[in-house]
Amino acid sequence: MSTLLPSRTDAGTPAVFVDRHIGIGADAQARMLEVVGYDSVEALVETAVPASIHVQARATSAIPTAATEAEALAELRELASANRSARPMIGLGYYDTFTPSVIARNVLENPSWYTAYTPYQPEISQGRLEALINFQTMVTDLTGLATANASMLDESTAVVEGMLVARRASKAKTDVFLVDVDALPQTKALLHHRAAAVGIRILETSFEGEVPEAFGAFVQYPGATGRIWDFSAVAESVHAAGGLVVAAADLLALTLLRSPGALGADVAVGTTQRFGVPLGFGGPHAGYMAVRAGLERQLPGRLVGVSQDAVGAPAYRLSLQTREQHIRREKATSNICTAQVLLAVMAAMYAVYHGPDGLRAIATQVARKADALASALRSYDLDLVSEAFFDTVRVHVPGRAQDVVDRARDRGYQLLWIDDATVGVSVDETTTDADLAAVLDAFGLASAELPEGEALRGVDGALHRDDDFLTHPVFHAHRSETAMMRYLKTLADRDYALDRGMIPLGSCTMKLNAATEMAAVSWPEFSRVHPFAPEADVRGYLEMIEQLERWLAEVTGYDAVSLQPNAGSQGELAGLLAIRGYHLANGDLERTVCLIPSSAHGTNAASAILAGMKVVVVACDEAGNVDLGDLRAKIAQHAAELSALMITYPSTHGVYEHDVLDITRAVHDAGGQVYVDGANLNALLGFARFGDLGGDVSHLNLHKTFAIPHGGGGPGVGPVAAKAHLAPFLPSHPFSQRAEHAGGVFDGGPVSAAPHGSAGILPISWAYVRMMGAEGLRQATAAAVLSANYIAVRLREHYPVLYAGEGGLVAHECILDLRPLKEQTGVSVDDVAKRLIDYGFHAPTMSFPVAGTLMVEPTESEDLAELDRFVDAMIAIKHEALAVAAGEWPADDNPLVNAPHTAETVVVGEWEHPYSRETAVYPVRSLIRGKYWPPVRRIDQAYGDRNLVCSCPPPEAFA
């Protein structure tokens, strides 16, 4: 072929999706190649990627020829239509809900929210951070506990994290963790699987009689059966023995019930799904975790706090102690490094929109309908499992359970089959009287009259909530749609997302999230589907999932793919647990050592610890490659106990390592397995495959390489892909509709609450692959590599490029070394990052993987004009730094150390700086018409850590 990239000219009209997705056309490509010094993109990429790993051409492909946008949407419509429309009344932590249209349109479907990145640069993330402060305040108020984090991945994984918090904080000398027999079944399965790897013994109990000694106890409130009970006496017994109590609580129920904190819980966890977040066949949904005072530093995940900026104004930011727990590497107590921000924002705004009175009214309506159903069933002498319930009624129908469930399904309703004698029915805010009548008909009570329901009729009055919650003005000020729309717009305008400009973050791959890819997420055939729906009702979903599994297996060189992990960290863990399971099945109980290069992302080591492995660090050489000599020495030292090697390819330093085949061969020769971290797959797709490098298992980041949006720090999907010998140990699930997958039968135990994880956003990646085709995916990699090398070449004389491979080329990202600039001028990497805001850019990744550097990844989505705008900004900043060194501006008063500059900075008061107002906020003329104005000055992180505040500040703080 004459060119690897789209052949359109920049003046032409793109005809196919790949031309829409890739920002550089033939004309731009030619100009960039001239700068980089190559005649063609093929020559560039084939030089950068070692010849020894080039993928061989395939005669046939599982990936069909690229579809147009219209064709892809039509195929998705066909798949969606294969999902049978039904009203889900299964419950078990998942409920249908009404997403207020103002939230659906202005958050879920708004690129200002879904294309934003994790708020590591807080000055340009104040809108998202305020929304997350609202979320944290909502959770602490409802749970009655002191501090909540910015969301978890789902309820079941949050329970596991709660168990780990209890073990860290407990004074009890035992490895026993008590688990409520009335816990959600998917949570119990996850607890057993995760506990086994870290040496925790699970003891299921009804908490009747004497409470066994344990470092912690977990209770479900209300229980899976719907039962509501007072667990305060159990909490006292557990505390007396030095243990902690973890309670999984339904937030909607907590508007009517006493809070877990009031009953003695130390940790509360759960999901916020029913606060306006669609079912989505299991996700993504925002889990939550809250802790009592004294446990704040134990929180996993992310925590938003309140600090102040350079002039003392209140400002939000991520708190240091939990901002990146994986900085602790092998000392980490959790591998969770993401959140579910977009969904947490939706849930928080649901509470903002409805307020405490609205939430209480919704909960009361739900409880009354459940009671009305229960009363009608009782009137026909049917017994209930529990008389104290909120929304779930379990009914004894000896010998008739399957018949009742089948009759309900015939009428368009999904009920829960418990056993031959028991059926479960859960109601939610969407349930109508007509729905209840249809359910009664399914029980054979066609003439049953629906009585007037009473909320919490059978619940002890002492458990009824009598304290206020959501008292902050934010939960009372936005009742009209006009007010809510304007509030959401105000917050979005405070942020910087891809809809404003490039986010050149290395290791993060902030690429285009095309509108066509996003479209199906909101379709009810995908969004209003329960994750435990029967197979016959979800054939469209299952077909789409199987197709995506096959496509991902092909492009990675593996035999099987599980889409269950709902974050990259969970995909890592699933892969390592598969390796653990494989060794155990082979009788190799001693194989517990995991080799990890010193350059690796911190989640690698954290995941290994949580998989029950011992981390041994392997050195890297000056070029950023794994030190082959040190690797061989470590393999020899630990040969009998070697479990796995974790490597990232291309390396975390953005280099294609030439020794990768020697590395993987050495591990295999010693009986170990090779885990290839898929974080940098965007530099490889179509040119090489992990499975061909010697990889046995990898996780992929669909929110990086396959176009799922970052959503401000989540959602993500982290599928795990493996060779055939590891496939049996990939994640299974007790409610999986099918045991068989494209790559075999999986039986490794669950890693997320839902069988297919965050299935609701899989149509995005399906559409991306379907519209790109195999050749389009290859072109995307080529464009990303070309763009990164273009930036590296243009900036090399201003900032040293720290690592490079063959021919001085980088992969899809480059590391700019700012340490010489600091030595020469005193200007720090922080100063450059904050000054970039004044130029209208999100900063690249700061000080990772090397302190004092910026790691730049442009992605294939950006056009040449945007790349040049970034390069010009970086060059201009270098000249500003040299001006400081030359004494033109003082070291403590210049545009760099004072950055970013707000509008208030240049408008209010006298201007007393040695540089002009224009230099401060319009360093280039192009900003005058399209300036992004940061809402706050540079934020004082240390102040916030000394003064930890993680809930909504009072309005007078902003006066």
Automatic annotation (TrEMBL):
Keyword Protein transport: no
Catalysed reactions listed for this entry: N(6)-[(R)-lipoyl]-L-lysyl-[glycine-cleavage complex H protein] + glycine + H(+) = N(6)-[(R)-S(8)-aminomethyldihydrolipoyl]-L-lysyl-[glycine-cleavage complex H protein] + CO2
Enzyme Commission number(s) of this protein: 1.4.4.2
Cofactor or coenzyme needed: pyridoxal 5'-phosphate
InterPro entries noted in UniProt: GcvP, GDC-P_C, GDC-P_N, GDC_P, PyrdxlP-dep_Trfase, PyrdxlP-dep_Trfase_major, PyrdxlP-dep_Trfase_small
Domain (Glycine dehydrogenase C-terminal) ranges: 780-901
Keyword annotations from UniProtKB, A to Z: Oxidoreductase, Pyridoxal phosphate
Enzyme class: oxidoreductase
Gene Ontology cellular component terms for the protein in this record: cytosol; glycine cleavage complex
Residues with N6-(pyridoxal phosphate)lysine modification: K704
Annotated ranges, domain Glycine cleavage system P-protein N-terminal: 19-443, 475-731
GO BP terms in the entry: glycine decarboxylation via glycine cleavage system
Molecular-function GO terms, alphabetical: glycine binding; glycine dehydrogenase (decarboxylating) activity; pyridoxal phosphate binding
CDD domains attached to this UniProt entry: GDC-P (cd00613)
Pfam families found in the cross-reference section: GcvP2_C, GDC-P
Quaternary structure, from the entry: The glycine cleavage system is composed of four proteins: P, T, L and H.
Family statement drawn from the similarity comment of this UniProt entry: Belongs to the GcvP family.
Function, in words: The glycine cleavage system catalyzes the degradation of glycine. The P protein binds the alpha-amino group of glycine through its pyridoxal phosphate cofactor; CO(2) is released and the remaining methylamine moiety is then transferred to the lipoamide cofactor of the H protein.
Protein name: Glycine dehydrogenase (decarboxylating)
Source organism of this protein record: Microbacterium testaceum (Aureobacterium testaceum)
